[in-house]
Every structure is written in structure tokens, then in C-alpha cells.
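sry for the spam today, last one i promise. C-alpha cells for design, 288 residues
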């Protein structure tokens, strides 16, 4: 039987049954397998992919929608991958066009690597910001934080959701309510009995990823990162909005080294909603 052309292979929705194939695709492109993250993205959002007639996936990506149920006001595209043997044949472009068309008028965002950015620009995405990926073993030092942090409890959930909606600019209850099961740590910062920030640390291969990181100010963000670092023996990884210059400098002084840049890109809007001054790091760049 002749092998079907790439252009004729159908694009379909992915499910958790595709988790191993997604992880295999990551590994094929030299990325970590990241099953934990793939599982989260496929259950909290949606996946799109193209089956390879020879087994596995030709291509895949994830979409995470935000806003009121049934009326999303923002969607993040992530984990856009094409198998090495099918690279540079227009597969990624075809998948992205399908997803953008499927999302209709919903404003979109994504984080683009330098290699991926030209494709997204071709599709109409505009660079509106930048993030820096940092990784390393956190070294405590400097003055003790004046901000009080503690482990989050079930009673904090309503306050966390209120703060997150205010800062993120749209509802992501379906993401935040999954954090206690997804993350190894979820901590909050308080001032005068009021919740002024929260952060999670979730396992990804040999690291703990810090995100989301929502904080009243830079000092609060530092206190949350330091409190998470004190409770793990793994290296930390995080993606900090490049506008937070002071936090980036502090994190690098504490042992987290620059790994790679990402362009924050949008489609259908000129900037992301919410308050970037208090939004320091995403849950993962794949979810915006």
C-alpha cells in the first residue's frame, strides 16, 4: 500500500490515551518526555495531533482555554511539535492553521522559541513580550524576607481564585483547582491577614518548576520562590517575564542561570489581559 501524503493525514483531537505518543514525540525532538506536564495539559485543555501511519504521531500541540465555561476569552497554544523525520515539510504550519481556525475569534497567545517564531509571525502572531527560562540550584542568601509565607490550605482556594482572576485578567478556575493534585508544593504569601501572592512548584523530570507565580510585588515573589526552594532538593526551573528585571537579577544571584529566551506572542489582541506587574511566571509556557 502506498504511504499517504502528509497533507492528506487527518488532524484529530488527542486524549489521555495519547500520552505516551506525545512523550515519544517530545523525546524525538530532543525535549524531555514530560509525561506529568502532558497529562495536565491534555486533561485541563485539549490536544490536537496527526497520526503517523507507521506508528506514533507526526505532530501535536495543546490548547488551554480561559474564561467563563463555554465562552472562552483567551486560549494558549503550546507543545507544538513535529517529528524529526517529518520536519520542514509544512506539517507544523498545517496543524497551526487548523487550530487557529478551530478557535475562531478567541484571542490567542503562545510562547515562541527563536526557531518557531518565524512560523507564528507568518500566521499573524505578533511578539508582545519576552520571558527568560532560568534553571539551577537555589542558594539562599541575603536578608530574611519580611513577607510571611505558608503552605496553602483548602480554605485559601477562594482567595487564590479571586487574586488569580484579578491578576491573570480572565478566569482559570479549571487550572488553579488542579494545582493541589498537580504540584508538590502550593504556598501563599500573607500581609496583615490578607493573601497577597501564591506560587506552586511542580515536578518535571529532575526539576521543580516554579509556576504560576503571582505576587503583590518583587519582594513577595522572592519570598515565595525562597520558601519553595527551601522545601525541595531538586534544581528549580521557571520562566520569568523579562520586564521583572529585579527578580531576574536576584534569581541569577541565587544560582538560577539563564537557559533560553521565549517571545510572548499574541493573535487577535495587542497585549495580554490582567496585571503584568503582579504576574511573574506562568504555570508553564505551554499554557500561557
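last one done:
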Amino acid at each position: 500500500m502506498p504511504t499517504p501524503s502528509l497533507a492528506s493525514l487527518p488532524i484529530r483531537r488527542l486524549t489521555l490515551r495519547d500520552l505516551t505518543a506525545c512523550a515519544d514525540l517530545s523525546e524525538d525532538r530532543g525535549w524531555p518526555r514530560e509525561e506529568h506536564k502532558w497529562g495536565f495539559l491534555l486533561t485541563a485543555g485539549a490536544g490536537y495531533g496527526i497520526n503517523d501511519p507507521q506508528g506514533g504521531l507526526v505532530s501535536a500541540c495543546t490548547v488551554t482555554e480561559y474564561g467563563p465555561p463555554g465562552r472562552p476569552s483567551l486560549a494558549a497554544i503550546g507543545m507544538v511539535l513535529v517529528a524529526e523525520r517529518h520536519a520542514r515539510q509544512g506539517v507544523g504550519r498545517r496543524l497551526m492553521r487548523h487550530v487557529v481556525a478551530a478557535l475562531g475569534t478567541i484571542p490567542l497567545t503562545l510562547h515562541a522559541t527563536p526557531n518557531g517564531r518565524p512560523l507564528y509571525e507568518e500566521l499573524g502572531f505578533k511578539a508582545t513580550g519576552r520571558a527568560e527560562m532560568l534553571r539551577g540550584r537555589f542558594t539562599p542568601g541575603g536578608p530574611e524576607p519580611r513577607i510571611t509565607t505558608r503552605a496553602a490550605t483548602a480554605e485559601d482556594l477562594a482567595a487564590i481564585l479571586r487574586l488569580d482572576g484579578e491578576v491573570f485578567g480572565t478566569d482559570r478556575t479549571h487550572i488553579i483547582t488542579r494545582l493541589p493534585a498537580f504540584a508538590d508544593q502550593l504556598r501563599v504569601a500573607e500581609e496583615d491577614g490578607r493573601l497577597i501572592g501564591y506560587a506552586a512548584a511542580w515536578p518535571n523530570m529532575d526539576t521543580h518548576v516554579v509556576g504560576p507565580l503571582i505576587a503583590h510585588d518583587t519582594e513577595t515573589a522572592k519570598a515565595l520562590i525562597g520558601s519553595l526552594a527551601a522545601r525541595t532538593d531538586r534544581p528549580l526551573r521557571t520562566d520569568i517575564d523579562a520586564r521583572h528585571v529585579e527578580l531576574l537579577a536576584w534569581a541569577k544571584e541565587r544560582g538560577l542561570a539563564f537557559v533560553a529566551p521565549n517571545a510572548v506572542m499574541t493573535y487577535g489582541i495587542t497585549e495580554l489581559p490582567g496585571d503584568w506587574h503582579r504576574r511573574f511566571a506562568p504555570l508553564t509556557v505551554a499554557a500561557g
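Residues 91-103 form the longest helix (13 residues). ok im logging off now
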